[in-house]
Each structure stands twice: as C-alpha cells, then as structure tokens.
Amino acid sequence: MFESGLRLRIPPSPTGSLHLGTARTALYNWLLAKRFKGTFVFRLEDTDRERSKSEFVTDIIEGFKWLGIDWNEGPLRQSEHKARHQMVVNQLLENNLAYECFCSSEELEQIRISQRALNKVEGYDNRHRNLTKQEKDNFRAEGRKPVIRFKLLNKAEITWTDLVRGKMSVNASDLGGDPVIAKDNGDVLYNFAVVVDDHDSAINCVIRGEDHLHNTAKQIPIYEAMQWEIPQFAHVPLILTANREKLSKRKHGDIASISNYLKAGYLPEAINNYLIAMSWQFPSDDHKEVFSKEEAVLHFDLKDLSKSAAIYDPLKLNWFCKEHFQRLSAEEVLTRAKTGGFLEALNNLKEYSPDEQLKIISLMKDGLIKLNDLSNPASAANLLVFCQAPNLQDLKEEAENCLREPEAKIVLSELNNLLETLADLNPEIVQKLLADLAAKTGLKKGKKLFWPIRVVISGNIHGADLVALLSILNKNRLQERVKEALKYLEM
Ligand code: GLU
Prior knowledge:
Layout: E1 7-10, H1 20-35, E2 39-44, H2 54-67, E3 73-77, H3 82-94, E4 98-101, H4 105-117, H5 133-141, E5 147-150, E6 157-162, E7 166-171, E8 180-182, H6 190-200, E9 205-209, H7 213-226, E10 232-236, E11 239-240, H8 249-252, H9 258-264, H10 268-277, H11 293-297, E12 310-311, H12 314-327, H13 330-339, H14 354-364, H15 384-387, H16 397-404, H17 406-420, H18 427-441, H19 447-458, H20 466-490
Parallel strand pairs: 1-2, 2-3, 9-10, 11-12
Antiparallel strand pairs: 4-5, 5-8, 6-7
The chain binds glutamic acid.
Glutamic acid (GLU) binds near residues 11, 12, 13, 194 and 212.
C-alpha cells in the first residue's frame, strides 16, 4: 500500500499540555511506523500565536520522551512554514480556487440567525465567492480587511476509505460553507496549514482522533485543488469518561494530561500498555493484556483497532499499573524511585542499608500504582511505617479501639520484655518471638495478638506481612515504638 515507504506524523498544538488522547494517537503512529519501518514526523502546530506557549512545547516533548515515543524527523514547527503557506494561498487565489471574503462578524451572525429561523444547516453562504473588482475596492475603501476562503467545490459528498472506519462519506453541505484558510492578518488556519505541511512532509498516512472527521472532509478538497496526492486516513476512537464525555483537561483536570502521570511516578510502560489496549487487543490466543509497546509492534495493525469509543477507566488503569510494578525487580523500582525524587519525603529511609532498602521495596512494590504512593499515607504500599512512628494521639477509631482492648497492654508489655532478651531481628527470630508472645499471653495468633503490634508500628490494623515488617524494622525501632505505646496507654 505504501510502496515509497510509510510516512506518518503527529502534529500536536502547543496550546496545552500533552493530552492522553494525543499520546495515544502518537503511540498508534509509533507502533505502525516501527512495524512497517516507516518514517515518523513530529511537528508542532504552533500557528496560534496567542495560545502557543514554550512551556507546552517542553511538556509535549518531555511527555513523548517519558513514554519512549521517538520520531525520525522534527520537531518541525508550523510557524516556520509561513512563507510557504502564503505561497500556496496565493496559488489558490490565482487559480480562482480561493477568494477574499469581506463579511464582517455581524454579517456572518446575521446569516446564521436567518438560517436558524428557517431551520437550515448553519454556515457561511459563500456570498463573496464572485465579487467584482469594484465591489472588493468598495469594501477596502470602507476599511474592511478580507479573510481568504477556500472554494469547496460543489460536490454533494466527500468520501474516503478510512483505515479504521472503512467507507466514509461526509455531506458537503454539513461543512459550514467555504472554510476560511487565512485570517485578515494573514495567519493561516489549521485545516489549510495541516494539508500543506503534511504534503510537504510527504505524509501518506494520517492517523488522528475521530473528532477530526469533518476536518478531513474539509482537507480532502484542498489536496484535490492543489492536485496533491491524498494520504490515507485513519480516525481512531476518542477517549471518553464513564459518562461518555470527551476526556478534557478543562473538564476532567489532571487525569487528561500525561505530565500528571509523569509527576506522580506512574510507570511509562503501564501508561503505554493502558493506552494501546484501550482500542487494541494483543492477537495471541490468550489475548494477553499486559505487554510492552515493543511487543505490540510485532502485531500492530490499524485494521484491528476498535471503532467504538475508548472509555477511561481508573480501576483498569490501576490494574495495569500494579501488573507492571509486579514485573519490575525491587532494584529497578528503587532506582526509579530514587532518580525520580520519590524518596525525598522519606528521609529516614537512609538509615537502612541498601540491602534493607531492597527488602523494603520488595515487600511493598506489588501493591504500588505509582511511585508517589511510597510516601502517601492513603496508599497501602507506603513506606512510612519504616520511616516514622505513628502519631498515637491521632489514630483512626478502629486502631484506637484495638489499642484500648485490655489484652493490648498485656501483649505490648510482654513484647517489650521479650525484646529485652533479643539482639537483632530476622524472620526466624521474629517467628519465634511471636510464638513466645502467644505462649506468654495465652492468646491465639490472631487479631488480639497481632493488631496491637500493627497499630503501634504503623497506626493501622492492616498492612504488609508482619514477620517481614518486624524483621526489617529491627529491634530498636520496634522497641522504641512499643515503649511509646505503653506510655500512651498509661496516660
Ligand atoms: N494540531 C492538531 C491537534 O492537535 C492536529 C490534528 C491532526 O492530526 O491533524 O488536534
């Protein structure tokens, strides 16, 4: 299909941070480019001078790098192609394929009002398509400056075969009349600039979100007018929220931006997996769900993309995150946590030897969703238990009640006595310690025995494996916390 070689592109506008949907479209491009040894072009569509910001350029580039999405050409900047855009506008004007339109915004609004009254499709009525020189001069004399509109040829339908959605057809009368391609200050608009730039980069396959279907219908006639080869189009389904709203940064906040996931310490491989799997299934017999983007490259094809909307499901995302943490070694998690600065809030972790730190991570990593969970008290996989004694004055009700049980005091005093007889702890010693404690207190190895210990070390009645916890905490920290609790109970 692409004898001269597949050429793909991702052209985000730096008017906001990298959106999850753009990252997903970039991934599908990347997968196809890798699979078919194509060329992937990265272009920044920065023609909107007011809204484009350099911090968003940085955010987009960092986001792609974090996800491991690399490109072969670029980043190109649309704003640097101004002269070329102007040249093509002039060419269209000369060939009578575009024209100057002097309508004021009030006139345009008036057109819409009358269309609405007649229940007609709203849009520009192409009234300035055939102005005489005299008419144009008169408008100019009034001080009006024209926009440039492209003449949508009088076709009933614009059709193409979409690589995801199959045969597509858009009614030309639904496109809102001849589209503006250049504003009265000369700035060109998206639907025009994208065609020129895609053509100049010899793009032969355009993959983008389904929200661009109407834009594609506006762009095809520009290719035709310029007698340029029309690329293949593939429109991928949008990401919607559970109540079927388009996922947007304005409405849904941080969850829509890649930078949020980066900052929170999500694993990029988990985000990639989640985004790819939103609309694509791994074609093995077992439809394996957990895979790397490199594994997906071996099988990825646009025709296998689902046509239905992708639903953003935070629970599913968390599932992918845990799966990927479980597949990483403790060494790798520790390195990423350190280099990403996720241990800074856990200063006391430095008191543990490198070997102990690895044990700590091994104990917790399978429950992690993101690296900032390591210091988040609300996460079951936080490391706070190792770094600070709980604040007994501020226990949750269930923990406070547990400590106030008459047996709790007995358990803790006996534990304190037994600890006096021990030096360092290790799993075998802790096993024996707990057995001795059960014997001394006459309590079974159950919640009466274990929960008070858990509360004094962590403030919670639940947590990671107690034997592992106690042996890593070791004697001094454990005894300090037990003594604190005994004092607290005396108060
Ligand atoms: N700049 C456009 C956007 O960010 C590009 C759309 C396209 O792929 O053509 O939505």
